[in-house]
Design a protein that fits this description.
Order of helices and strands: HHHEEHHHE
Helix content: 40-55%
Number of strands: 3
Number of domains: 1
Strand order of the largest sheet: 1-2-3
Distance between the termini: 25 Å
Largest sheet: 3 strands, mixed
Shape: globular
Strand content: 5-15%
Number of helices: 6
């Protein structure tokens, strides 16, 4: 694929190549999860490989998107660094709305003392392994 291809084009190509289906045929939640996976593997791994898991199974475990995710789609702790990612897949005709980003800006406040009964298990496990006094969070929208 042309190096000048857009992120969207590369994402769509990745999904078609790896999953043998067009992105548009997938449910919204699956689209979001695949976008997070693609971003971690194809972008972050190339720019800061120490921040993301090497094993693709660990990448899948770090995707917490869905009910009870507190606005987090991916969370991974490596050493004293915590990567928090929010992915928003939009059609080509639609841009993210400002309130989507505004909601993400408050993610650390939501994660600091969440209502544990409303947070999904994967996210709780990641939060329980984090140290709010010493860990450094990298938040990407």
């Amino acid at each position: 694929m042309d190096e000048r291809a857009s992120f969207r084009d590369k994402l769509l190509d990745y999904v078609k190549r790896e999953y043998k289906v067009p992105m548009s045929s997938l449910p919204t939640l699956q689209q979001s999860k695949l976008m997070s996976r693609f971003y971690v593997i194809e972008v972050l791994r190339r720019t800061d490989s120490q921040l993301v898991p090497e094993d693709e199974e660990d990448i899948d475990l770090a995707i917490v998107d869905g009910s009870g995710d507190c606005g987090v789609d991916f969370i991974w702790k490596e050493g004293e660094r915590v990567l928090i990612l929010q992915s928003k897949y939009h059609s080509k005709k639609s841009d993210p709305k400002p309130d989507e980003f505004d909601g993400f800006r408050d993610v650390l406040n939501r994660l600091y003392a969440p209502d544990r009964a409303k947070v999904n298990r994967q996210l709780l496990e990641a939060l329980d392994s984090s140290d709010w006094l010493t860990d450094r969070s990298n938040c990407i929208f």
